[in-house]
């Protein structure tokens, strides 16, 4: 999970997924593994809507509510499991990108 967290911080989601999958095989009950696994896609980049667990057509209010819920779930100060910081950073990045509509224009 340490390696997966490092990969997430480097925005290497493919590499992170590889190590999360290995951790799942070796330690399926590892604390926080499920949350990190859900947030990482198998593609080259993160699917930011999937990271937040919302529909791509979700309105801003839905994005905000889901972000708050996930931020509390994986906040690095509340959760001491390996990967918590990487998971929190991923949720934070998803919120930043999806709430900044000017970035798409």
Task: Write up what this structure looks like.
The chain is an all-alpha fold and 105 residues long. The protein has one domain: Orthogonal Bundle (Helix Hairpins), CATH 1.10.287. Helices cover 62% and strands 0% of the residues. The chain has 6 helices and no strands. α1 (2-9) runs antiparallel to α2 (13-26) and α1 (2-9) runs parallel beside α6 (84-99). The chain is globular. 30% of the residues are buried. The model has no long low-confidence stretch (mean pLDDT 75).
CATH architecture: Orthogonal Bundle
The SSE order reads: HHHHHH
Shape: globular
β-strand number:
0
The end-to-end distance, rounded to whole angstroms, is 36 Å
Q: Please bin the fraction of helical residues.
A: 55-70%
InterPro entries: DnaJ_domain, J_dom_sf
Organism: Brassica napus (Rape)
Domain J: 47-103
Protein name: J domain-containing protein
Protein traits:
Helix Hairpins, mainly alpha, globular, 105 residues
Summarize the model shown:
This protein is an all-alpha fold and 105 residues long. It has one domain (2-104): DnaJ domain (Helix Hairpins).
Protein topology:
Blueprint: H1 2-9, H2 13-26, H3 33-39, H4 48-52, H5 60-74, H6 84-99
Helix pairs in contact: 1-2, 1-6, 2-3, 5-6
């Amino acid at each position: 999970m340490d390696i997966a967290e490092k990969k997430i911080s480097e925005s290497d989601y493919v590499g992170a997924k590889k190590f999360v999958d290995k951790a799942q095989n070796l330690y399926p009950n590892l604390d926080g593994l499920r949350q990190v696994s859900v947030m990482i896609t198998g593609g080259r980049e993160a699917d930011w809507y999937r990271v937040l667990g919302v529909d791509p057509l979700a309105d801003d209010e839905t994005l905000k509510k889901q972000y708050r819920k996930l931020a509390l779930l994986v906040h690095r100060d509340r959760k001491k499991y390996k990967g918590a910081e990487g998971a929190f950073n991923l949720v934070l990045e998803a919120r930043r990108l999806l709430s900044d509509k000017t970035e798409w224009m």
